[in-house]
Design goal:
The complex is a heterodimer of chains A (71) and B (512).
Chain A lengths: L1 H16 L3 H24 L3 H5 L3 H12 L4
Chain B lengths: L5 H42 L2 H21 L4 H9 L2 H7 L1 H27 L6 H30 L4 E4 L4 E4 L2 H5 L2 H31 L4 H36 L1 H7 L11 E7 L3 H4 L4 E7 L2 H7 L9 H6 L9 H23 L3 H14 L18 H30 L7 H27 L4 E3 L3 E2 H4 L5 H32 L8
Antiparallel strand pairs in B: 1-2, 3-4, 5-6
Helix pairs in contact in B: 1-2, 1-6, 1-8, 1-17, 1-19, 2-9, 2-19, 5-6, 6-8, 8-9, 8-17, 9-10, 9-16, 14-15, 16-17
Classes of the chains: A mainly alpha (71), B mainly alpha (512).
Chain lengths: 71, 512
């Protein structure tokens, strides 16, 4: 088991170290994920129901009111 | 009618369309090219010929670039569900959540494990284990697509659920009914097989560039033979699944089917308009309106119901009703939909007041009319007619270009096995220009599927207008433009890196 974990670790370790084009691609992925989670999700895409209503009952009530035209 | 902000609805739709279409630029290539890579690597393992390894590694790099730029763009759609489409997200309950959760877990484990072995495992694991990882990456990517498409198919044909009026959520009563609904099966098969066609065209187009430049000739020829055989096989399956998708659509989304054909007045022995041009006011005129058309007699009846004499109802039949054929009008369904909405409100009110008998009576009325629920939100029967022009043209773009790619696969395959691919400049140029065309075809397919089903976000149950959150339209506008800028930058980055790697060509050794 230890040997398997060691081999698995070195597979990733050596793989990342010997990357050529991959380094540039990982940078793009990192920038993209940062924009998505640290900017868009945090400032622009708050979960509407979770932010405005604390419990599932309140959320149900709200959606029912919206669907039946009470809000 | 219940009041909704139309500007908010339009901006939310535009944003979702932008995100989904951008995401869909990357997905089909991933779905198809992973199988092509697996086939090429199998040939390497079977023959031991190092040229096949070189070929495999080149297409793996192209896949890697596409994967890196495209990965996680789909998560943005999930952000939008929670923010812009909260009524919808709540209403669909676990039916949408369960397949997406399976997809998320599957994608994470498959992608983080087997892609790593695929890229990092050369000379580190055995050939057989590496090949298995490549096949599992391909299978994993396609299984991820299965769950997304099952969720999408449920929106087009909601089955296997029951609405809970106490929680305002649809609850799954049969996972298997959701998974194996004919709409889901057709959607999955048609989407993935057409994606294989896209990947095959991309491989043929890039390989043709090498032939045009008289570089890496053996690499290009072998890539073309594998891709054209693969493309040809799946072009035939795509046509078959397209046919069964259309037949299913005629059954469960007949208005979309009629819109796709600009078929306003129902008739037996209905002809199929093979091609035609619609008048500029065709959408607003709300009637069948062609400048010219070329028809195939009885073909539409055959396409929809496998019988040339079958009656194919048109948009008018659904909008204004057709008693002879037992088709209720949208107006009748709107009345039943309003009754469903009112009875749901009354049920909640009766429950609050502790009036059990009234609650049961209103619940019974609600259940009887639930299948018309979404119709209660509209003002006029014409509100249920999808954008006919866009659906009609998108369908024809998809079909005609699909037919063109089939011919291209046949020709390339024939020339490839006869070893007559060299010195055909016109063929190379055609193949290179086919790359943007195959993406256009793929996007056109999504327009038929998604614009054609408007105004529904969930067929018959929830129109788009009822699905949106009560947020400011201006905030949706801001994120729309943010996405437009980010996506454009990502696309430029992908194309720049991709072109750079193609110019470099296949390498003998080294990492990715």
């Amino acid at each position: 088991m230890r040997r398997f974990l060691k081999n698995a670790f070195y597979l990733y370790y050596d793989g990342f170290r010997s990357m050529t084009l991959g380094k540039r691609l990982w940078l793009i992925i990192a920038i993209k994920l940062f924009i998505m989670f640290a900017v868009l999700k945090l400032f622009f895409f708050k979960d509407y129901l979770k932010t405005n209503y604390k419990t599932n009952e309140q959320r149900s009530e709200y959606v029912l009111d919206r669907l039946t035209g009470k809000q | 009618m219940i009041g909704f902000d139309t500007s908010l609805i339009e901006w939310s739709r535009a944003q979702f369309a932008l995100t989904a279409m951008f995401h869909w630029l990357f997905v089909p290539l991933t779905l198809g090219i992973t199988f092509l890579i697996a086939i090429m690597e199998t040939l390497y393992v079977r023959t031991g010929n190092p040229e096949w390894k070189r070929i495999t590694k080149f297409w793996m790099t192209i896949f890697g670039i596409n994967f890196a730029i495209g990965v996680a763009t789909g998560i943005i759609l999930e952000f939008e569900f929670g923010t812009n489409w909260s009524n919808y997200s709540w209403f669909v309950g676990d039916i949408f959540g369960a397949p997406l959760a399976v997809e998320g877990i599957m994608a994470f484990f498959m992608e983080s494990t087997f892609i790593a072995i695929m890229f990092f495992g050369w000379n580190k694991v055995s050939k057989g284990f590496h090949l298995t990882s490549t096949w599992l990456t391909a299978i994993g990517a396609n299984l991820s697509a299965l769950w997304i498409l099952v969720a999408n198919a449920w929106m087009q044909n909601p089955v296997g659920m029951q609405f809970n009026p106490d929680t305002a959520r649809n609850e799954m009563v049969s996972f298997w009914e959701v998974l194996f609904s004919p709409t889901a099966i057709n959607k999955f098969l048609h989407t993935v097989t057409s994606s294989y066609m896209l990947a095959a065209i991309v491989v043929i187009g890039i390989s043709s560039w090498f032939l045009m430049k008289k570089r890496d000739i053996l690499f290009a020829k072998r890539s073309i033979v594998v891709a054209s055989a693969f493309g040809l096989l799946f072009a035939v399956i795509t046509i078959t699944t397209g046919d069964s998708s259309a037949r299913e659509m005629a059954k469960v989304q007949p208005v979309k089917f009629a819109a796709m054909e600009n078929h306003y007045h129902g008739q037996a022995f209905a002809p199929l308009v093979a091609f035609g041009a619609m008048t500029p006011d065709a959408d607003t005129a709300k009637k069948q309106n062609f400048i010219f058309k070329f028809e195939i007699p009885s073909m539409l009846s055959y396409m929809a119901f496998a019988s040339p004499s079958a009656y194919v109802p048109g948009i008018y039949d659904f909008t204004y009703g057709n008693q002879e054929h037992g088709i209720p009008s949208f107006t009748e369904r709107m009345e039943k939909g309003k009754l469903a909405i009112q009875s749901l409100a009354s049920y909640k009110e009766a429950q609050k007041n502790g009036n059990d008998s009234l609650a049961q009576a209103t619940l019974s009325v609600f259940r009887d009319n639930y299948q018309h629920f979404g119709y209660g939100y509209a003002n006029a029967p014409e509100d249920f007619i999808p954008p006919v022009k866009l659906t009609f043209y998108s369908f024809r773009i998809m079909v005609f270009l699909g037919g063109f790619f089939l011919l291209l696969f046949i020709y390339f395959f024939w020339m490839g096995i006869k070893n007559k691919l060299e010195g055909k400049r016109w063929l190379y140029i055609t193949a290179i220009f086919s790359i943007p065309l195959v993406y256009l075809t793929s996007q056109a397919g999504w327009i038929v599927a998604e614009v054609g089903r408007q105004p529904w976000v969930i067929q018959d149950l929830m129109p788009t207008m009822a699905a949106v959150s009560k947020i400011e339209a201006s905030s949706v506008q801001i994120t729309f433009w943010l996405f437009a800028i980010t996506f454009t930058a990502l696309l430029i980055a992908e194309l720049k890196i991709m072109f750079g790697q193609i110019r470099k060509g296949p390498q003998n050794e080294g990492g990715h």
